Amino acid sequence: MTEALLAALYIFVIAMFLGFAVITKVPPLLHTPLMSGSNAISGITIIGALIVAGRQEGWLQTILGLIAIILAMINVVGGYLVTDRMLQMFKRKPGEK
Amino acid sequence: MALREVLIALAYMIASACFVIGLMWLQSPKRARAGNMLSALGMLLAIIATLFVSGIKDYSVIIIGMIIGSALGAVMAYTVKMTAMPQMVGILNGFGGGASALVAAAEFFKYVADPSTLTPDVSVSIMLAMVVGSVTLSGSMIAAGKLQGIVHERPITYPFQNIINLIFFLTIVAAGVFLVASFGHPWVFLYLTVAALVFGVLFTIPIGGADMPVVICFLNALSGVAAAMAGFVIKNNALIIAGSLVGASGIILTQIMCWAMNRPITNVLFGAFGAVTAASSATATATKKTVRPIQPDEAAILLAYAQLVIIVPGYGMAVSQAQHAVRQLADELAKRGVTVKYAIHPVAGRMPGHMNVLLAEANVPYEQLYDMDQINDEFQNADVALIVGANDVVNPAARYDKSSPIYGMPILNADHAKHIIVLKRSMNPGFAGIENELFYNEKTRMLFGDAKESLTKLINEVKNL
Predict the structure, then answer these.
(1) What is the C-alpha separation between A22 and B369, in angstroms, rounded?
(2) FRET label pair with B158: which of B35, B80, B108, B263, CA 20 to 30 Å apart?
(3) Whether residue B328 has pLDDT greater than 80
């Protein structure tokens, strides 16, 4: 347990620092798409939802898993699509496609 | 490790890399859209890889859930108005947190049925994911409700609020510690869940509408942390990495918002800002000051014969959906050779970057949108500063009036312009209930009325000149 946990904690801490480094460089212009886009990324929990819903270990877990899939998919699909909708509006010159 | 597991693990690694590169490309508007697509591809890869995980036996529930969730998500994404983007992001935050909590709950019941493989780090992670996810879910719904106007926007306060919330929070911690020490007890787990949901509500209701940018960012961070915790529960690195990235993003944005208001995060979250000031402003309005109204024809002349006009948009522009009218006016002025720039304060609107998205929707080229630091020195050269629905972010009292609740907040130097025209519905103080000195400035003229209607009149007057 300890070794695996330590490795996971390493990843957690390093990913946090990576996140700080990358995201401080995002300009305020794009902060709203950053939020909705990173939001969609937090829908990664769909992985857990799929595993939980598909392993057939009792109706309670399956129902919890089903609701988790629905919520996570709304998060993923809604998040990415709405971010794309916003980003395609940002243009350098008027009328630019 | 079987070949299949190796391939799945590699797919997760590639997906994680896609998320990081996608966020990197968000650093410039040119590549941002491609970055978002890359990130989405990474997510697709992660989902496909997960379908091959050996533990999954039944696909019917998965297919049903994915169809329902995708359809709802797509409908929301295509129908939401750009002005309602803060609510949308709030709701999505909440759903992400809720999904992580549900994954933790399912794992909890799995280990209740068979505790043989349970280790303490997993039980700790289950409790953390459950609590953080539930707080994110209910807190986000209240925040979205406030932004939509369903929940009262002003801070809801009661005596000993922070102490009651603290005690309540401590019972959640106690329940969590108890469950880790003695695993099982579904009723205690139920208490933990319900209490965390209630805490999310209690935590959000005392925070006022104008502070929502901070709350939305904070909940964004929490949704990421919840996903990372769920990653510790199911021992999945993709969840840990993606969750940490989102957590870091939310923390940074929260910090930027707090800096932009010059208030520590604790003050925003526990200060019930806007409740006290509403009372104190009543005395301030009693002192007599004069405002100078202006008619559209006269305002149009000021604008049309200017060289440089700086437009300062605020939440009022979003409320009256005036972004398209703003751009039309700017176009008319540009035709007459006037240079038009936009000054965007970091906390203008109800979420970071809110004004930028609305103006982009109205086809304003992003090169005309300036951050506070980029444009503040230019106000002194501006002939007219046109304030469209902004209030606190241009209040000069923030510079010197120590008694003002917004003292110390960096503001846009609109008062340095030669003329200031303020589009405003009435003289009622803005959301935070703070009297704005700019309105009484000798250089300031007030154009009363709905922002969109006033702009339409201005456009016609400028055309007729």
Answers:
(1) 22
(2) B263
(3) yes
Between CA B277 and CA A23 the distance in angstroms is 34
Burial B219-239 (b: 16+ CB within 10 A, else e): bbbbbbbbbbbbbbbbebbbb
Residue A19 counted as domain residue: no
Contacting B residues, span 167-226, partner chain A, CB-CB under 8 Å: 216-217, 220, 223-224, 226
Nearest CB neighbour to B228, from listed A12, A55, A88: A12
Domains along chain B with CATH numbers = 1-52 (no CATH), 83-279 (no CATH), 290-464 (3.40.50.1220)
Please give the Cα distance from B143 to B149 (Å, whole number). Answer: 10
Q: ipTM of this model?
A: 0.95
Whether residue B103 contacts residue B128, with contact meaning beta carbons closer than 8 Å, is answered with no
Question: Is A58 part of any domain?
Answer: yes
How far does the CA of residue B289 sit from the closest CA of chain A (Å)?
36
Instruction: From B356, B332, B360, select the one nearest B344 (Cα to Cα).
Output: B356
| B273-326 per-position pLDDT tens digit | 655 544 444 444 445 578 899 999 999 999 999 999 999 999 989 988 999 999
- Report DSSP letters for B231-268, one per residue: HHHHT-HHHHHHHHHHHHHHHHHHHHHHHHHT--HHHH
Q: Is B114 a catalytic residue?
A: no
**Spatial CA neighbour of B293 closest among B77, B444, B137:** B444
3-class secondary-structure state, position B404: coil
Provide the domain limits for residue A51.
Answer: 30-87
